[in-house]
């Protein structure tokens, strides 16, 4: 059904126009009309909306700062719905995504330089081949991977444990370094390991060319559109809340001797926002059932990738969960009815305290408890049992990287 607007002439309403002669919005924008006829609305998580067409025309002047931040009330309801269908978000360019991508590429180049200086090649082929085509395990730990033995005392990995140094190429290693040397960042200063910042630094590291190409593709498509939809402020909070919480969850339940890196948890958090968008705006979506099927397949593929070495499924699952909670709170949802608005605020009021409780409980649990005792089978959510990993038992440390 076409949408009609009254015709204005010299800032006055043209009252002598017959209703049948009202101007059709499709006549104002023939390209939009053609897109409708051909079914050309793009999926919102990948679409670059046509921002040129009247994005500021209907902006309300009497809007509170809170309403502008949340995206509620900035435009009349009809314009919000039209923008949603056309993939127009709160801003044109995903500045945060671009900045993060540049930073991560720069960090990855540094990873290759560090490994090249230590082993003579940017990609590690000894003592074992890195399947992601990147640095050695020791180099990744040294550069800030999430590695619990560097973050707290771990029973199965005492401070006396020796690892293959960054320049070791033998299997078993013949050039050994202490845990403190491998962890780097100035060591532990005769105290217990407490490199908590690895929950954050691990987000910027990638295991190799394969890993970073997959993540940056997802980040520049899915995450970029979510930033356009949410705005940079809400996106930044969602991205890092999801990335950090994914690492916290992995630190609790993944094998303590297996380092984990990557922006996957943060990207899964932005992927979760597309689910919030789908269900909150179901009737405004183009072919929502087909979209739900494709998004489910996409999610299952991402979980399957989480079983690859250096990638942690707990980061994926934790990032997705936190993305749902934070996304529900910050994503600008269109509520055409009072009932829909009350439902959304109900979800938001539940999501905020739940997100805080999960962070507090799991961070405390990481430092004070043994999560394996509470959920010994949880490790299988991120570990496929093979002889090489001792069927997901023990710490997960490999004899090719340690002297044990």
Please characterize this protein's 3D structure.
By secondary structure, this protein is mostly helical. It has 2 domains: 1-39, no CATH class; 95-392, Rhomboid-like fold, CATH 1.20.1540. 50% of the residues lie in helices and 3% in strands. The protein contains 15 helices and 6 strands. It has helices at residues 25-28, 30-37, 65-70, 77-86, 95-119, 137-143, 179-183, 198-204, 209-230, 232-253, 264-280, 288-305, 313-330, 338-368, 371-374, and strands spanning 4-5, 8-9, 12-13, 23-24, 162-164, 176-178. A two-stranded antiparallel sheet has the order 1-4. The chain has a two-stranded antiparallel sheet with strand order 2-3. The protein has a two-stranded antiparallel sheet with strand order 5-6. Helix 8 packs across helix 10, helix 10 packs across helix 11 and helix 11 packs across helix 13. The protein is elongated, with a radius of gyration of 25 Å. The model is unreliable at 1-61 (pLDDT under 50).
In short:
By secondary structure, this protein is mainly alpha-helical. The protein has 15 helices and six strands. The chain has helices spanning 25-28, 30-37, 65-70, 77-86, 95-119, 137-143, 179-183, 198-204, 209-230, 232-253, 264-280, 288-305, 313-330, 338-368, 371-374; strands spanning 4-5, 8-9, 12-13, 23-24, 162-164, 176-178.
